[in-house]
Amino acid sequence: MSAPREVVSHVDLETYYLRSFGCQMNDHDSERIAGLLEEMGLSRRKSPEEAGLLVYNTCSIREKADSRLAGHLGAASRLKKEDPSRVVVVAGCLAQSRRDEFFGDFPFVDVLVGPQSLHELPGLVRRRANEGGPVGAFQEQTTRWSADLPRTRVTGPSAWVQITAGCSNYCSYCIVPYVRGPEASRPAAEVLEEVTRLAGSGIREVTLLGQNVNAYGNEPDFAGKETFAGLLGQACQVRGIERVRFMTSHPKDVSDALVHLLGGHNQVCEHLHLPVQSGSDGILHAMRRGYDRAAYLGLARRLREAVPGLALTTDLIVAFPGETEADFAETLSLVEECRFDGAFTFVYSPRRRTAAAELPGRVAPEAAQSRMERLVEVVQRIGRERNEALVGQISEVMVERASRHERGEVMGRTRTHKPVNFVSTAGPGDFVLVELLEATSTSFRGRQVS
Ligand code: 5AD
Ligand code: SF4
């Protein structure tokens, strides 16, 4: 439960700008950053030019994230020159992973705060305002849940609910365990209390969130005695919650109970994001994923049989150190065999402190690019084929928001998480039946029939 928070009343800042990079966990944390700042009395502005406090919630998963941030920080630096009373905050994973050199590289940054220390943000902002000098807070382990901090939610009928923090898998390419610490599970009672509260405020869909949700409750000192499938089952019982989703799953921890729940015609939606990363046994071993190609294919087959209509999506990395054309061909053939509904595709990016960063056999950028292009082509073709096969079906869609492009249209999602655009007067949180008329590799156009 949350400890009492300091009230910060004497900071001359009235407005803030917040920009979030990276994954859903960062979006979740950004809602908490906004909540903390609004509790301090600051109000949000849409552009950095209009704000006194500039916050960047950063990601460090791939190098690209670093370079994108650098552009934003350049703008922050110029704005601070214009008005030196501005305060620049860098939060999140990159703040944590680059803490030793950040102030040296970006001397105009005032506050650095790691993802396990967000609760310290109000105190840091006040210290910076009162005492000057750059200030920072970092901790390795999760001891205070950002989920317990005040939140300003992005409006809509769905909400994230954090169930685990950090990760203890140490896949050889991944920086997450080093910046977000070892895995920790949030007590089930707190998770369910939050789901109940959200349902009471009109939320219809929750996504249980963690780096590896299937390992929920696995740490030896976890007193909650709850498994992931157990928690998911309980979330389904909460009145008012029509859809339950979860992210992200690790293939080695998918239990029979979970497969059963997915196929059980209940609130758990028929969508599983199950990162495979590679189709080659040698590469999977070097990635330290804890399963081989045959095990993944077996699991995918079992899932498709047990869960009619399942959408299976994945993450794929090309050009991992030592990846040959033959290894890459194994990835292509695995994608063909699994017939993924969608995939996020990444070129391997060396991250410091990770084991893979030390491996020989870096793949040349041209080869990496060519593999990426070939992979995307296959992923898109299969996604399109799978969606085209659904044209003509009637699907239950939950409306999320008005369309950003067409007046009178709305965007909603199927239970399988596929976006559908259609003409409707329904509003966010409404459930309607929609005939699927046209498909792309990632979305549909439809016609409301109820
Ligand atoms: N390089 C490229 N992709 C990575 N991912 C994680 N670390 C790296 C890295 N160093 C990808 C994985 C993971 C997703 C969140 O990001 O595919 O599942
Ligand atoms: Fe990274 Fe592997 Fe943990 Fe995912 S499971 S966050 S890829 S270490």
Structural key phrases:
450 residues, alpha/beta, five-stranded mixed β-barrel, 13 helices, 33% helix, binds 5'-deoxyadenosine, binds iron/sulfur cluster
Q: What is the strand and helix layout of this fold?
A:
Blueprint: E1 15-20, H1 24-39, E2 43-44, E3 53-58, H2 63-82, E4 87-92, H3 93-97, H4 102-105, E5 111-113, H5 121-131, E6 135-137, E7 158-162, E8 164-165, H6 176-180, E9 184-185, H7 188-200, E10 205-209, H8 228-236, E11 243-247, H9 256-262, E12 271-273, H10 281-287, H11 293-306, E13 311-318, H12 325-338, E14 342-347, H13 365-388, E15 394-402, E16 409-414, E17 419-423, E18 431-439, E19 444-448
Parallel strand pairs: 1-2, 1-3, 3-4, 4-5, 5-6, 7-10, 10-11, 12-13, 13-14, 17-19
Antiparallel strand pairs: 8-9, 15-16, 15-18, 16-17, 18-19
Helix pairs in contact: 12-13
Bound molecules: 5'-deoxyadenosine and iron/sulfur cluster.
Can you give a write-up of this model?
With 450 residues, the chain is an alpha/beta fold. Helix content is 33%, strand content 21%. It has 13 helices and 19 strands. A six-stranded parallel β-sheet has the order 2-1-3-4-5-6, with helices on both faces. A five-stranded mixed β-barrel has the order 15-16-17-19-18. A hairpin with a 4-residue loop joins strand 18 (431-439) and strand 19 (444-448). Helix 12 (325-338) packs parallel to helix 13. The model is unreliable at 1-10 (pLDDT under 50). The structure holds 5'-deoxyadenosine and iron/sulfur cluster (SF4). Iron/sulfur cluster binds at residues 167, 169-171, 174, 176-177, 211-212, 250. 5'-deoxyadenosine is lined by residues 61-62, 173-174, 275, 277, 315, 317, 346, 348-349, 351.
